[in-house]
Amino acid sequence: MKAKILILLCLLIAIVGCSNDDDDNNQANINGNYVGIFERNGNTSNVVLTFTNGTFNGQSAIEKFPALCNGTFAISGNTITFTNECIWTADFDWSLILSNQWDFSLNNNVLIMTKSNGDKYTLTRQ
Predict the structure, then answer these.
(1) Tens digit of pLDDT for each residue in 38-69?
(2) In 3D, which of 95, 96, 122 has the Cα closest to residue 111?
(3) Domain of 72?
(4) What total of structural domains would you count in the chain?
């Protein structure tokens, strides 16, 4: 009986430990320079994003579409949460600022990020 409890306890610790390692690995795996496009409602813009150890910075070919600057990010599972650290003027749609939660997938060198409103980044690591 004690052996079964010990085995279950060890498995539980391993599972919890692995889930944190996966988040760290995802964050490390996303590091790099990416180029691609941002899409909203059929409109697109060329973008460049760089991810480095929990920080990001970016630029867009069209000013404020999307609104890219710099900040931090955190990964949990297939969700990436951005915290933008720039000051923005009130003369545009603030939902274009790269912030809050996005679903993402990273396959080979292609990073796809989607938001619940339909916004999408399709990026290729350079």
Answers:
(1) 999 999 999 999 999 999 999 999 999 999 99
(2) 122
(3) 2-125
(4) 1
